[in-house]
Amino acid sequence: MEILEEIIQGCIKYDMQSQTKLYKLFMQPMFLICLRYCSNREEAEEVLQEGFMKVFDFIHQYNHQGPLEGWMRQIMIHCAFRKYRNNRSLHPVVDITTTEIAGTAHEEILSRLATKELIDMIQQLPPAYRMVFNLFVFEKMKHREIAELLGIAEGTSKSNLSAARYILQKAVSFSLQSSKINYK
Hints:
- The structure is a single chain.
- The protein is mainly α.
- The protein has two domains: 2-86, Rna Polymerase Sigma Factor, Chain: A (Orthogonal Bundle); 106-183, Winged helix-like DNA-binding domain superfamily/Winged helix DNA-binding domain (Arc Repressor Mutant, subunit A, Orthogonal Bundle), CATH 1.10.10.
- The chain has helices at 2-12, 16-37, 41-58, 68-86, 106-112, 115-123, 127-137, 143-150, 154-183.
- α1 crosses α2.
- It starts with a helix and ends with a helix.
């Protein structure tokens, strides 16, 4: 922990070596977060770079109340939101009122898929669905909070989550069927 504190203090002083060390320490987990929220690798890289610039600009505000990684995670998510909001007019929120999802053994399915495949599937979701899905599943936010954050109705958040789950279920099912065919 002493080493991390030294790196943080160096970043506060805008020391390039400290910034490089911090980047190398947290680049991988922060990039995975960005990948979940973005449509493709290039967009995720843009968000990651913007996020680290914000981290370096505001690291003096880190109050050590929780892990540095959690604080940085919130910055990355905020940068992804900003990118989503700026492109929002290109991606309207679709309100699907009814979507039926068949029950599945989620752990079994997930254990058979690689993390990269799952991230690719999440990236293929329409942007509004992807945002709601990530916020609900990974950030454990309530629909009311998601609706406020994204400027949509709570019912729209619920229906977008339902639609995202349905699309992912179809993608997972297709992937599993394809892998059975390939292994025969």
